[in-house]
Structures are given as structure tokens and as C-alpha cells.
């Protein structure tokens, strides 16, 4: 991903990032430029985006994190957001606290079967906490989540990995509606952090809000091609989650929907 200098930071956010901070650039996906800004042991995350579609996601992440402040969930604190318009583009900047840990997916590739079971049990426990948390008033809506996401998927056809034929099949095979809960909305295991003590955290909250909890479960259990999830690890997840297992075909439906985002 592209890099940036602190001189480019909007003045409104400068007070939150030390001028002499050292920038580190972690591996990141395609939606934003991300840096860790560190000085004297204090680290904040600086996230910049100028792509029109992803810029909306960055604004949304800021709003979701603000709404979740005080929820008790392991999420970053949104320290500040600013938009900057120039003659060439509009860019959004988000400054957040940094959660400790490395991506769960990377940590889950090599451990022993027993260790992996423990990790997935803890993941199930965290997802249970998330889905049991109240939806903040500022994030509530009345429209069914699946209908909203299918409509979004249709609008995304010009740039996403999904196809018109694939979307038509998804529309034909929609699972029965489920009760909305608070969801993360992008619970791929790269967005789950795990530290040395096994404590988990959740990042990249642009999709957070009321939604279908099966979507979170489907993405959390999608481990291919990195590794095959064993029956033992799957059982451990649901032991931590404490709910009825989601049918494999239903999980696959939500994974296929993810291709459009």
C-alpha cells in the first residue's frame, strides 16, 4: 500500500500524533493506507483513504467506533477524524488507538491442534459477547440486513470480485431471515487480533452495526486456503459461542456474499 508523511496529516489531527513520531507501515489490504505512529512508547494508528467507495467506509468506521465507546468490547478508540479536499481529490484521515496483537489468521496457521482449539473457543466467546451487546441507538435501522447487503452488492458489481450470475444465484437462494444483532460485519480472521496471552481484539469496523449474526460466524470460520478448520476447532468455536451451529450451506452463502464487498 501507499505511504504518507506526517506533514500530510490534517492540522485538526496534528495534536493527536506527535510531530516527531516514527512511522511503521504494516501489511494492509486494498482499502486504506495505514501507519503506526510511535514516540516514547505511545502508539496510535493513522489511517488514510482517498478512494470514493472506501472513503465512505472510513467515515463509517469512525462513527461505529464512537458509538461503541464504553461498550466493553475490545475495539480501538477513535481519537479523531478529518476530511481534506484538494483540487485533485478528497481524502479521509482517521486516528485510533492501537490494539495489541497480531492477526488471528497468521497465529492460527501453525499451532498444535490443542492450541488451535483453545484459540477458536476464545474466538467463539468473543463473538458471543459481540452478538449479545446492545446495538447503539446511533447505529440502528429498520431495513432487513440481507436485503440491504444484496442491494449494495448489486451497486458494487462494477468493481468487486462477484459476478452478476453469482449475485442472481445468491438472490435465489437467500437463507431464512434471522434476528439482527450487533455484528462486526467484516469478521475475517485478519481483522481479529490475538496477543501473547491469547487476548483478542477486533479492528476494521466499517461494517459494524445491526445485522445477521450468521455473517460474522461464516467469516470467522472461513480459514481456507490458509488451513483446513478441523471438526475439533469448529466444535470449540461453538462451545465458546454457546449457540446452535450454523448450517454449512448457509455459511457458504454468506462467504459468497462477501465476494461483493
Describe the structure.
The protein is of the alpha+beta class and 261 residues long. It contains 8 helices and 10 strands. The longest helix has 20 residues. It is globular, with a radius of gyration of 19 Å. The mean pLDDT is 95.
Write the layout of secondary structure elements.
Blueprint: E1 22-24, E2 33-39, E3 42-49, H1 52-68, E4 78-85, E5 90-97, E6 102-103, H2 104-109, H3 113-132, H4 145-155, H5 164-172, E7 181-183, E8 192-194, E9 200-202, E10 209-211, H6 213-220, H7 231-241, H8 248-257
Antiparallel strand pairs: 1-2, 2-3, 3-5, 4-5, 6-8, 7-10, 8-9
Give a short overview.
This protein has helices spanning 52-68, 104-109, 113-132, 145-155, 164-172, 213-220, 231-241, 248-257; strands at 22-24, 33-39, 42-49, 78-85, 90-97, 102-103, 181-183, 192-194, 200-202, 209-211. It is of the alpha+beta class and 261 residues long.
Keywords:
five-stranded antiparallel sheet, 35% helix, alpha+beta, three-stranded antiparallel sheet, 261 residues
Amino acid at each position: 500500500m501507499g505511504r504518507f508523511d506526517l506533514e500530510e496529516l490534517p492540522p485538526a489531527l496534528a495534536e493527536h500524533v506527535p510531530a516527531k513520531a516514527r512511522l511503521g507501515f504494516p501489511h494492509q489490504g486494498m482499502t486504506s493506507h495505514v501507519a503506526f505512529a510511535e514516540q516514547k512508547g505511545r502508539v496510535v494508528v493513522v489511517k488514510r483513504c482517498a478512494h470514493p467507495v472506501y472513503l465512505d467506509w472510513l467515515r463509517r468506521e469512525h462513527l461505529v467506533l464512537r458509538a461503541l465507546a464504553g461498550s466493553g468490547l475490545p475495539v480501538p478508540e477513535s481519537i479523531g477524524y478529518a476530511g481534506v479536499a484538494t483540487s485533485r481529490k478528497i481524502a479521509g484521515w482517521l486516528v485510533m488507538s492501537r490494539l495489541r496483537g497480531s492477526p488471528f489468521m497468521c497465529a492460527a496457521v501453525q499451532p498444535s491442534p490443542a492450541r488451535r482449539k483453545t484459540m477458536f473457543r476464545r474466538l467463539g466467546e468473543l463473538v458471543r459477547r459481540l452478538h449479545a451487546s446492545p446495538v447503539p441507538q446511533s447505529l440502528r435501522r429498520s431495513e432487513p440486513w440481507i436485503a440491504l447487503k444484496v442491494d449494495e452488492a448489486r451497486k458494487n458489481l462494477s468493481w468487486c470480485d462477484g459476478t452478476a450470475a453469482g449475485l442472481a444465484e445468491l438472490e435465489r437462494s437467500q437463507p431464512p431471515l434471522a434476528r439482527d444483532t450487533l455484528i462486526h460485519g467484516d469478521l475475517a480472521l485478519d481483522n481479529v487480533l490475538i496477543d501473547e496471552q491469547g487476548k483478542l481484539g477486533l479492528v476494521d469496523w466499517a461494517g459494524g452495526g445491526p445485522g445477521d449474526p450468521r455473517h460474522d460466524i461464516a467469516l470467522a470460520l472461513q480459514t481456507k486456503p490458509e488451513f483446513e478448520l478441523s471438526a475439533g476447532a469448529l466444535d470449540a468455536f461453538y462451545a465458546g459461542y454457546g449457540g446452535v451451529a450454523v448450517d454449512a450451506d448457509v455459511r457458504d452463502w454468506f462467504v459468497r456474499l462477501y465476494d461483493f464487498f
